[in-house]
Amino acid sequence: MLSRDPLHLETGDAKSHGSTFAADVRAMLTTRPRSISPKWFYDERGSKLFDAICDLPEYYPTRTELAILTQHAGEIASHMGERAEIVEFGAGSLRKVRLLLDAMQGPARYLPIDISGEHLARCAVELQRDYAGLDVQPVVADYTQRLLLPAPLPHAGKRVGFFPGSTIGNFTPDEAMHFLVVAGQVLRGGALLIGADLVKDPDVLHAAYNDAQGVTAQFNLNVLSRANRELGTNFDISKFWHSAFYNAPQSRIEMHLVSRARQRVSINGESFDFDEGEAIHTENSYKFTIEGLHALAVHAGFRPGPVWMDPERMFSVHWLHAPA
Ligand code: AVI
């Protein structure tokens, strides 16, 4: 069976994505202190750089979460029950879900949601090839907006959301709450399986975002290269430093791009100045305690269930019961 054509939902297609990048880059240039959303990291090159980050020796989250999912897949699958439907938010390359599908009892349907339609369609076809009996329905949408998903199949079991990778940590607290409320609405009566990176030794965190090979630096700088490619800006990439540090009072890694010199950047004939040392804030990556994640979930209407962790308590995977 071939994968179905992706469903395109109005909440965010490729076009609106493009024009908003232009607006966000302009807002970053015109507003101080300067900042831009980390969602703009993920063009084709940025997605490849992120995949490379996931394989770095210093970047523990991906391999730790994979180990947790591998070790506990059977138990997680028993919570899902028979004929469950998986909805994956920001599905990316559809790698982690395979661990769940392999352990599940007759999964009814898999709905991967992603903003990047072409990549999603390609990965969905590959997955469909490997899981011939599975109903795969890719959905192209911005899952951070309100979501309207296809109705559950008549004989399906629970609808279970899957949000791995601690991507929730890249949201502001308000965005995280908004995401959980929206997820609760589409998962009514089901559950959410969510990965959350944990608070830990700041040296370990620092190394994870300042790798020796400089891949994270390239990933960070890619947002400026992307602006040059797509919007015709003239950022001189060699004139910005990658800076990542742990802000302990806020429990988050912050990434910035710091101007190495006084410089001028232009877009559509307009010029903007950067002082030496002036920074663009590009990403927050919040780290959680189990209690903190539970408090957020309860506030959004979820009821905490089991939590799975690695022996060093580096990373956590949570089962959250969705509102009825
Ligand atoms: C996708 N996200 C959870 C990653 C993180 O760790 O916050 C993005 C990332 N940024 C730098 N390295 C990885």
Characterization of the model:
The protein has 324 residues and is α/β, with parallel strands linked by helices. It is built from nine helices and 15 strands. The chain has helices spanning 14-30, 44-54, 60-80, 97-103, 117-130, 173-186, 202-208, 215-231, 290-299; strands spanning 7-8, 34-35, 85-89, 109-114, 135-136, 139-140, 159-163, 191-197, 240-247, 252-259, 263-267, 270-274, 279-286, 303-309, 315-321. Strands 1, 3, 4, 5, 6, 7, 8, 14 and 15 form a nine-stranded mixed sheet that branches. Strands 2-13-10-9 form a four-stranded mixed sheet. A two-stranded antiparallel ribbon has the order 11-12. Helix 5 (117-130) links the parallel strand 4 and strand 5. Helix 3 packs parallel to helix 4 (97-103). The longest helix has 21 residues, at 60-80. It starts with 6 loop residues before the first strand and ends with a strand. The relative contact order is 0.17. N,N-dimethyl-L-histidine binds at residues 53, 61, 165-167, 169-170, 209, 216, 219, 283, 285. Residues 53, 61, 165-167, 169-170, 209, 216, 219, 283, 285 line the site of N,N-dimethyl-L-histidine (AVI).
